[in-house]
Backbone:
């Protein structure tokens, strides 16, 4: 700790998961804060840019007396360290978030969704981006679904499980974050699967996912069905694991549906989404457990921090899932797509298509900011 | 890259947040009101932070030049409130009048802002003599012409007009100044 009053992202996330009250003083610019910040059910946060503290003593009093322990957050951890030290000199209990939002954007947390004698399924959460990825392990073999840019979390899980990563799947071409799929496959010798439709014209090597309706892993008992679910993108594919766990990519979220407009063909893709919801997904029972590739608010997490819901509950809670009138459905979905698009999404898509190469610093910069892949909640 | 004349350069290469803003604040306290400092930084975050800091403190963020991973910021120290007096020089012209005059005759424009402000955008053909240098450079101004004197907000040009009128030059203060100018603009780099 070096005597410096700091807290790391993992400890902060632990507090948030346990529901402990967390008071965050975010000292970045107002615009950065408005765009993207640390959230959680037990999180209270205020924004005062660090340079305001340089000017007037008065500003120090903007941190409320009842705040308790204050976690100071900035972009990379430099300004927050200074503010935290100054707060301490004024008798406040303050810590600086080590590495700031930079570190937060690269933090991952894994939780087992299910673990029995045949298989373990992990959900790997990247809370800063609202990105969810999955690792399925069975009898010494692992399959990774929608891995994010940093491959370490997946390699660590495989190592801890004593498993070899045999396959890596991207359910679709991501627009909000850089996929770690190809890199992870290259590092482990695993097969990289992607739907041909998603890869059309892209400069990448992949195994066409549509040629594998069934992927068997480890034990023959664990079966992965690949189900085309176009809409968010034309080649979007969902996976049904062991007949119950539905890895839905960006097609169905706990709070709604994936947006169909990122390819610039909102109407056409909305029509596909209709078919997917009312023909393909309609055939799945209510008890199917949906595990999406994203969440947008901490409310979508359960008490453990897991994001997922039974299909029956999603149908009950989201009117759009019951909107069987085709024209009403497509009109509603289209109307909701006027929202802001994910930051830098065009460049991110180009990187994921192998058309552009970026170093890790640039990659981290591109990924900074919120995820915006869902049709906005309340639909 | 063409050099821009400044009163002080602050080197923040290799420094990350919060140091560029802190060093800028310290440097600003060492220069006179109205002086311009250049801050050279490599941290991209310095752009939003210095703009935000300037806005909060009332200093003028003049502009930014980027070259080879270096960000050169230009800031002008704010004048204390008491120096912001009412404009006194009676003969004024607004920007519309100046634009019109420029379109029909060979008009002389004197820009009395600091060189950095001038470099980031000025009326094409305007001569730049900062207010503080005016006394020493009077002979540069043709006394047979009428000079339209402009600054950012009309304050410095008001002082300049009074000074120049005393020396017998024909001058008009352009009000409010460059903040309202929507005609053609030229940059020096």
Residues:
């Amino acid at each position: 700790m070096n005597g410096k009053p700091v807290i790391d992202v993992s400890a902060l996330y632990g507090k948030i998961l346990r529901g402990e009250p967390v008071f965050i003083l975010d000292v970045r610019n107002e615009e950065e804060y408005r765009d993207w910040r640390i959230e959680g059910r037990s999180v209270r946060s205020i924004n005062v840019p660090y340079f305001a503290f340089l000017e007037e003593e008065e500003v120090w009093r903007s941190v409320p007396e009842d705040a308790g322990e204050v976690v100071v957050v900035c972009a990379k951890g430099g300004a927050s360290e200074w503010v935290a030290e100054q707060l301490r000199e004024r008798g406040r209990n303050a810590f600086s978030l080590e590495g700031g939002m930079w570190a937060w954007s690269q933090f991952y947390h894994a939780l087992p969704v299910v673990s029995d004698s045949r298989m373990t399924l992990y959900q790997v959460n990247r809370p800063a981006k609202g990105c969810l990825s999955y690792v399925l392990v069975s009898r010494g073999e692992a399959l990774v679904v929608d891995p994010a840019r940093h491959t370490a979390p997946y390699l660590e899980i495989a190592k801890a499980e004593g498993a070899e990563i045999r396959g890596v799947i991207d359910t679709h071409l991501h627009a909000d974050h850089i996929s770690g799929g190809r890199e992870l496959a290259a590092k482990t010798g695993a097969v990289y699967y992607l739907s041909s439709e998603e890869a059309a014209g892209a400069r990448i090597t992949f195994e066409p996912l549509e040629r594998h309706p069934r992927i068997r892993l480890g034990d023959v008992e664990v079966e992965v069905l690949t189900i085309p679910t176009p809409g968010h993108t034309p080649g979007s594919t969902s996976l049904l694991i062991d007949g119950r766990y539905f890895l839905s990519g960006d097609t169905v979220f706990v709070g709604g549906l994936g947006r169909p407009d990122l390819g610039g063909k909102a109407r056409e893709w909305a029509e596909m989404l209709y078919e997917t919801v009312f023909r393909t997904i309609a055939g799945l029972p209510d008890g199917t457990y949906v595990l999406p590739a994203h969440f947008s608010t901490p409310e979508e997490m359960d008490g453990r921090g897991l994001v997922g819901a039974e299909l029956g509950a999603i149908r009950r809670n989201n009117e759009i899932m019951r909107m069987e009138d085709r024209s009403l459905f497509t009109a509603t979905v289209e109307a909701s797509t006027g929202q802001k698009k994910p930051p830098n999404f065009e460049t991110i898509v180009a990187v994921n298509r192998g058309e552009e190469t970026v170093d890790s610093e640039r990659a981290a910069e591109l990924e900074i900011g919120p995820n915006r892949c869902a049709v906005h909640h309340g639909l | 890259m063409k050099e821009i004349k400044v009163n002080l350069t602050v080197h923040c290469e290799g420094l990350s947040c919060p140091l560029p803003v802190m060093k800028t604040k310290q440097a600003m306290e060492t220069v006179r009101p109205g002086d311009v400092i250049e801050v050279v930084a490599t941290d991209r975050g310095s752009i939003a932070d210095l703009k935000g800091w300037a806005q909060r403190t009332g200093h003028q963020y003049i502009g930014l030049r980027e070259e080879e991973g270096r960000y050169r910021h230009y800031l002008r120290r704010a004048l204390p409130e008491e120096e912001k007096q009412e404009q006194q020089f009676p003969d004024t012209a607004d920007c519309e009048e100046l634009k019109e005059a420029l379109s029909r005759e060979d008009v002389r424009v004197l820009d009395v802002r600091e060189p950095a402000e001038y470099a980031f955008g000025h009326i094409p053909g305007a001569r730049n003599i900062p207010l503080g240098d005016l006394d020493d450079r009077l002979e540069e101004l043709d006394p047979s012409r009428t000079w339209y004197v402009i600054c950012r907000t009309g304050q410095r040009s008001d002082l300049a007009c009074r000074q120049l009128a005393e020396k017998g030059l024909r001058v008009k203060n352009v009000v409010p100044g460059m903040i309202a100018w929507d005609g053609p603009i030229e940059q020096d780099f």
